[in-house]
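Structure, all two chains, one model.
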Amino acid sequence: MPNEMNDWGRRLDAGETDDAELKLAARLRAARPPVLSMPSATEAAIRARVLNNSNAHAKPRFGFAWPRWNLGWWAGTALAGVILTLFSFMFSVLSQPLPASGPTADPVKTFTGLNATPDFIETLQANQLDQVRIVSVAPSGGWLTNQLEVTVAYTLTDTPTATLQIAFVNPNWDGEFVPVENRMPWEEVFSTEVTRLGDNQYAATIIINISAENNGAELARLAEENQVALYASLTAVSAQREFSRLAYHIARQYTYQLPTTVGCTTPNGLDRAVIKSVSVEPNSQLPNAPTAFEVEVEYQLSSAPVASLILGWADPAWTGEPIGANRVELFRYVSHTTSLVVSAQHTTARLRGLIFDPALSASVARDGRLALWVALACGPAGAQSTWLYSHVWPDHTYFVPTPNTANAVSIASASLTPGATLPGALTPINVTVNYTLTTAPTATLQIGLANAEWPGSEVDARAGTIFAVGAQPVVVTADKNSVTVPFYYEPISAAQMFSEGWQVNLFATLSYQTETGAWARLAYQFSPEFFYLLPISQ
Amino acid sequence: MFICVNLHPIILKLIWLKDFAPFRIKLITMNDEPELIRRAQKDPQAFGWLYDRYVRRIYAFVYHRCGDGAIAQDVTATTFEKALQNISRFRWQGVAFGAWLYRIARNELNGYFRRERHNRDLDWRVLETHVAPSHNGKHDALHAAFGALTDDDRELLTLRFFEDLSSAEVAQVLNTSVNIVYVRVHRALQRLRVELEKLETVEADHAK
């Protein structure tokens, strides 16, 4: 039968008409009219909308408009890492393994082997009798909090055991999986818990802790109008590790608003956050290995119902202001932030994920010390967030262990004479960079041209006239101390970045990508010696 | 030196800039969809050609499903916005880019109806406006028979015969295999034939 149908399908595709259905197919084709004409006003409106979108893409949201020398991905990744580290957790929540309370009938063992959307292979047809249904959730909607209790009822018929997956999905998703390579963000599930179901069970209650690992940016990506719905699925796994979804349920009655969408009015000045305790003594030396600290904060949230409480390590000399006026300050003075979504209904919060990494703290620990910075912010993540409160606490200051030799980078020579006017044609400039790498076996070296306002970190170009064009990043190793990097100066890209007659300087950054994907700057030089002038058109 | 045929002006400019250093002769034709997708993945400006090629078809498809110009405009624009946002994820698999757009449009439309709590049945005005007028009444019967089919059957036959997608493209839109498309089309045509025979019998009785 399948072969017959394949043969029939090929005849259909070939336009043959030798049976009743094929004749009818030909009739339908003949009845096909010309494509509906689209009113010109409609076309103009659609074009304008898509064009605006296109322009938004043409100018990367996170500034740093690298030229076309295949730098976009690097800058994007670096920026995404930094921005995520600092802002994305408008939603992300520290994992707080609170004791599982409430109804926990049929306690089930969870395992972490499956935490991504599997690429389902439909080798096994789902038995129509297998069912799963989300029957209750607490809380049952509203703002997405850091813990949900989900109870599902299920029926397994032919399969003795299966996997229960609870996830967040786009409320409009139809539940159909598509090939992973063409999957759209809203066709993905954001897996939170995967649980092995045993025999003879008909219901399970799962406590979902939405932790910092459950990245808020991922949830925002698949959300529809900042809402997500709960999804439950039963999956059988064959001996060949092929997944077969037996049943699923999208509980659209349980939709949750992501806290990133909380609207902010003008801060009323009553928002506060005070550090109550830290799992390390003030004025002590921080450990010489990456360590996570626990911090208890007492806060008062008045301007918004929900906000992100953000903690980070900051330069003790920084007051914490101004943040809103110039976001560059954050990158200059703060590192290693973490956050927790807090509600105005409560006044205390405990964050357990504040990480100190001695290899990456040098850029902000200017005098060998770090202080705790605490902030409250609301609204969408990123540049539009509203800062409600920001303060550096000098009474929570710590000493940073000093490495034997600090990371360093300096520009030694360039094939274009310093002080020259940059050429009007594509010109290779070979730049030799000396470096010392002590805190990591490898790092990424980036050179380029920047104007004097550029602080040497990845910043939002919209924050001001801060521009840089760069070369292809190269990986350098700690066992060497010099490298020559070709930088193809391209006048068209430079003209987009800089104004005529500007002075630009060579810079070099030595960066390191952490396990979380975030980029941290190990060393940086904005060379006053190697400066050039942009030409002035006649 | 560049030779560009049937090329969107924006792409013309883009090719000039991108291929500035190594001078080369570049001939791009309408059939170079994979190449244009690759370009659009690198630079959103190059999306223009794909947009021009498909916007009318997608608009017509959406309009015939919802019967509302404003909704069709919104859904079409959203479809192309999402395609542009996600084009980097698209992988050429030998199926036209349009199939991917149809799938996005279909999802968008389904989402729209869910959001708006549209309880009314989708109009599927496909044949109302789609079937070319005829003087012998045959298309009217086809129209009526088509209207008696289920939504799924109408969607399938519309994609395959009115939107003129290949079976492989329909499979891509519906996220299924080509073999299943063959089976479903065959069954839908069988049901259409049954409905048509019923109507033609009634008409024959009336004629007597």
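The CA atoms of residues 6 and 30 of chain B lie 7 Å apart.
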